[in-house]
Design a protein that fits this description.
Largest sheet: 7 strands, mixed
Oligomer: single chain
Strand content: 15-25%
Distance between the termini: 49 Å
Bound molecules: pyridoxal-5'-phosphate
Number of domains: 2
Number of strands: 17
Pfam families: Aminotran_3
Number of helices: 12
Shape: globular
CATH class of the largest domain: Alpha Beta
Protein name: Acetylornithine aminotransferase
GO biological process, one term: L-arginine biosynthetic process
Helix content: 25-40%
CATH superfamily of the largest domain: Type I PLP-dependent aspartate aminotransferase-like (Major domain)
CATH architecture of the largest domain: 3-Layer(aba) Sandwich
Pathway: Amino-acid biosynthesis; L-arginine biosynthesis; N(2)-acetyl-L-ornithine from L-glutamate: step 4/4
Catalytic activity: N(2)-acetyl-L-ornithine + 2-oxoglutarate = N-acetyl-L-glutamate 5-semialdehyde + L-glutamate
């Protein structure tokens, strides 16, 4: 069934694979989007954690325009200085020594999976190709990444599941250890499950997984496609736990809206990725990397991430108040930095709809959670505005609930009256 707010399938020539909202946008600036319906929307979805510096950030626009006037694409047959510079920047700021650029998150995760398998292959253990993943995970929509994510709804109808992924319950370290066998190559995990509902993995658990990998000669892969690039208030979310992975996938925020992803690895973990074993036509092209460099230039300015953390505390404190004031609608608030989840007591989709009706954009997620992913440039005025709209959305839902309750009560009275009527007739 299609809600009145969705575009009915068949209304355009596109695959009807997305349940699209009947709304488009003409322009944007910072945290704001101008809808083609003439309304202004406060964008706390950021295209699902992608427009990390908001819309039309002047430095990103300048970087893109400057590069667009020079050269767009040359292929990875040649050296690409922007790509080398971005790789240098990423390795200087992380555990990694090597980078492979992609166009998307799923491709970055694919590269991570291939890197882990090749590592054991060149180590003389080609039988070690299996990867342990966690329930509720999301790693992308390619054949391998749906197998890694393990969600039945994404696997159905696409033939045999790609072999080599063993899934254990979220948060179950014992199950993870028990799943390790002679064919195990790696453990793959999101430090905070994004699509799964902003479910953080406790820092102690990430440290325990690191130790487990070290004990068993496994590679630890972090999928930071959603959590990475400043979203949690650190450049990469795993920094909060004090440990580092061997391999990491990033995407979403690094391009600020331009399609760009990357797989980062230590020299040791990347040692199997020798000439010819992997490739991409578009990955890391000059346009994408010019924008990626500009994104990092802004985020790595002194104090930028401190501000993200400060505003995150302000926002989360206000959200805790909102949850307290509207227990019928909201259950709890969780997350790190500006990757925030509001678990709901009514359908999360209903809350997203009510927010949109109030001109505030958020994104649904698993575990009946609404994701709030403001641009990292959001400050008090945007937070205040979002709170006012969240209050209004909550009031809208409560009014609906009250109405439903009232009509249920009325129906009960009517039923009682109807039950009495024949009795009167009898007398
Ligand atoms: C979005 C996401 C992906 C997939 O990224 P695409 O660019 O859609 O391929 C993979 N992993 C995580 C954690 C994500 O949030």
């Amino acid at each position: 069934m299609v809600s009145s707010n969705s575009v009915p399938p068949g209304s355009s020539s596109l695959y009807p694979t997305f349940a699209r909202v009947d709304l488009s946008f003409e322009s944007g600036e910072g945290a704001w989007l101008n809808g083609s319906d003439g309304r202004r929307y406060l964008d706390f979805g950021s295209g699902i954690a992608v427009t990390s510096l908001g819309h039309a950030h002047p430095r990103l626009v300048a970087a893109l325009q400057e590069q667009a006037a020079r050269v767009w694409h040359v292929s990875n047959i040649y050296r690409i200085p922007q790509q080398e510079a971005l790789a240098e920047r990423l390795t200087a700021e992380s555990f990694a020594d090597r980078v492979f650029f992609t166009n998307s998150g799923a491709e970055a995760v694919e590269a991570a999976i291939k890197t882990a398998r090749r590592y054991h292959y060149v180590n003389g253990a080609p039988e070690r190709f299996r990867i342990i993943t966690f329930e509720g995970a999301f790693h992308g929509r390619t054949l391998a990444t749906i197998a890694a994510g393990g969600q039945a709804k994404y696997l159905e109808g696409f033939g045999p599941k790609v072999d080599g992924f063993d899934q254990v319950p979220f948060g179950d370290l014992t199950a993870a250890e028990d799943a390790i066998g002679p064919e195990t190559a790696a453990i793959l995990i999101e430090p905070i499950q994004g699509e799964g509902g902003v479910r953080p993995v406790p820092h102690a658990e990430l440290r325990a997984l690191r130790a487990l990998c070290d004990r068993h000669g496994l590679l630890l892969i972090f999928d930071e496609v959603q959590t990475g690039v400043g979203r949690t208030g650190e450049l990469f979310a795993h920094s909060w736990s004090g440990i580092t992975p061997d391999i990491m996938a990033i995407a979403k925020g690094i391009g600020g809206g331009f399609p760009l992803g990357a797989c980062l690895a230590t020299e040791e973990a990347a040692k199997g990725m020798t000439p010819g074993v992997h490739g991409t036509t578009f990955g890391g092209n000059p346009l994408a990397c010019a924008v990626g460099l500009a994104v990092l230039d802004v985020m790595l300015e002194p104090g930028f991430l401190d501000e993200v953390n400060r505003i995150s505390l302000v926002f989360k404190q206000k959200l805790a108040g909102l949850v307290d004031d509207h227990p019928q609608v909201f259950d709890l608030v969780r997350g790190e930095g500006l990757l925030i989840g509001l678990r709901c007591n009514v359908a999360a989709a209903k809350v997203v709809g009510a927010m949109r009706a109030e001109g505030l954009l958020g994104v649904g997620a698993g575990d009946n959670t609404v994701r709030l992913l403001p641009p990292l440039t959001a400050r008090e005025p945007e937070i205040e505005e979002a709170m006012a709209r969240l209050e209004a959305a909550a009031a809208r839902i409560e009014a609906e609930l009250d109405e439903a309750e009232l009509s249920a009560a009325e129906a009960a009275v009517a039923k009682a009256v109807a039950a009495e009527a024949p009795a009167e007739q009898k007398s």
